[in-house]
Amino acid sequence: MAVQGTIRYWAAAKAAAGVAEEGYEAGTLAEALDAARTRHTARPEFARVLRRCSFLVDGDPVGTRPHDAVRLTQGGTVEVLPPFAGGAR
């Protein structure tokens, strides 16, 4: 069942999306991210940045859970967090 909420983009994800936030209508995190990729097909960097991001759903880290297993809530928030600092040496 699809619900509505907000996706918030931070740092490089915000730059790649061209917006700070947008709505979603989806049942799972996978559905919300697929819809976002479709909305931003004119911005090829967006899909690349999403592959490196971590996600919070209503404040809880998604971690390694499959995105199609992460249910979204009505009025919820998905935070899209790219790596902010550091990296491999």
Summarize the structure.
This protein has helices spanning 12-17, 29-39, 44-52, and strands spanning 3-9, 21-26, 54-57, 60-61, 76-81. By secondary structure, the protein is of the alpha+beta class. The model is unreliable at 85-89 (pLDDT under 50).
Explain the overall architecture.
The radius of gyration is 12 Å and the shape is globular. Residues 85-89 have low confidence and may be disordered. The chain has one domain: Beta-grasp domain (Ubiquitin-like (UB roll)). It has three helices and five strands, in the order βαβααβββ. It is an alpha+beta fold and 89 residues long. It is 29% helix and 28% strand.
Parts with pLDDT < 50 across at least 5 consecutive residues: 85-89
> How many independent structural domains?
1
Structural class: alpha+beta
Biggest beta sheet summary? 5 strands, mixed
**Cα-atom Rg, whole angstroms?**
12 Å
Helical segment count: 3
Count of DSSP strands: 5
In whole angstroms, the N-to-C terminal distance is 43 Å
Order of helices and strands: EHEHHEEE
Strand numbers in spatial order across the main sheet: 2-1-5-3-4
Share of helix, binned? 25-40%
Shape: globular
CATH level 3 topology: Ubiquitin-like (UB roll)
CATH superfamily: Beta-grasp domain
**Percent of residues in β-strands:** 25-35%
CATH architecture type: Roll
- Mean pLDDT across every amino acid position: 93
Task: Determine and state the CATH class.
Answer: Alpha Beta
